[in-house]
């Protein structure tokens, strides 16, 4: 990932509508579908550690942080309540087998070449205890590639079908699969396919806080999606692909 993005994340990810909404979707899925208590959890590709810190606080999990970027781990180490830190590649996880009850991987596989995510999934399976859980969220659909995608050096976007096929190939059973950030899809299409090309917008980060009223307005659709997904619903299209899987 573009190292400059870490500063943007640290400035916005605690309060920005997208991060708050996605954390709520994750929370609803865990409460509804994860049937056993977690002890040790690995956040693979932890970035600045914001999600790891939130999971430790929200669920009482012992969360370990793994990231390839020294900038991300440096920020994560300053956060409270985290179990430990390791620098490494998700395709070669530096932990022994059967170490974790759950692995989370939030928006990381976009930075791998197409097909390389299966190697990462196999590593997650190796690190999980039998019956362990994997939660993956990934950028969806190549036709949603944006100037933000260019800025963060995105290498691929996936369909839900390809994501689930890769998980099954790596030894997982997929229990939940849905798209998310779906209700704002028409807005995204206008922005990414019409407005940005029209004004010849340069590559730039989309991670920034807006005025309070806009943050509230944009958060409402994700709150509605979280409610629906938390009741077992799913969306046929969206800007993110989400899967909850279990190691065989």
Number of helices: 9
| CATH-level-2 architecture | 3-Layer(aba) Sandwich
- In N-to-C order, the SSE pattern is HHEHEHEEHEHHEHHE
Strand tally: 7
Write a structural description.
With 248 residues, this protein is α/β, with parallel strands linked by helices. It has a single domain, classed as Rossmann fold. Helices cover 41% and strands 21% of the residues. The protein has 9 helices and 7 strands. The radius of gyration is 17 Å and the shape is globular.
Key structural traits:
248 residues; alpha/beta; Rossmann fold; 7-stranded mixed sheet; 7 strands; 21% strand
How are the SSEs placed, and which strands pair?
Layout: H1 5-12, H2 17-33, E1 40-44, H3 50-59, E2 62-67, H4 70-76, E3 84-87, E4 100-106, H5 117-127, E5 128-139, H6 147-151, H7 160-169, E6 172-180, H8 185-198, H9 212-230, E7 240-247
Parallel strand pairs: 1-2, 1-4, 2-3, 4-5
Antiparallel strand pairs: 5-7, 6-7
Helix pairs in contact: 2-9
How do you describe this structure in short?
By secondary structure, the protein is an alpha/beta fold.
């Amino acid at each position: 990932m573009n190292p400059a993005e870490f500063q943007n994340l640290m400035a916005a990810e605690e309060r920005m509508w997208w991060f708050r909404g996605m954390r709520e979707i994750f929370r609803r899925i865990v409460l509804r579908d994860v049937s056993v208590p977690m002890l040790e959890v690995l956040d693979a590709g932890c970035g600045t550690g914001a999600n790891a810190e939130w999971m430790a606080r929200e669920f009482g999990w012992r969360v370990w942080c793994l990231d390839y970027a020294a900038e991300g781990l440096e920020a994560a180490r300053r956060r409270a309540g985290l179990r430990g830190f390791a620098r490494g590649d998700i395709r070669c996880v530096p932990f022994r087998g059967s170490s974790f009850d759950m692995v989370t991987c939030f928006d990381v596989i976009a930075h791998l070449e197409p097909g390389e995510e299966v190697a990462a999934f196999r590593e997650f399976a190796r690190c999980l205890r039998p019956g362990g859980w994997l939660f993956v969220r990934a950028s969806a659909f190549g036709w949603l590639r944006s100037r933000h995608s260019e800025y963060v050096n995105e290498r691929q976007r996936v369909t839900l079908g390809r994501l689930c096929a890769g998980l099954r190939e790596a030894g997982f059973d997929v229990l939940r699969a849905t798209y998310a950030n779906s209700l704002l899809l028409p807005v995204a299409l206008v922005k990414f396919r019409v407005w940005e090309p029209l004004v010849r917008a340069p590559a730039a980060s989309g991670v920034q806080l807006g005025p309070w009223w806009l943050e509230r307005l944009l958060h409402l659709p994700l709150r509605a999606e979280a409610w629906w997904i938390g009741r077992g619903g799913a969306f046929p299209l969206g800007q993110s692909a989400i899967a909850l899987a279990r190691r065989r």
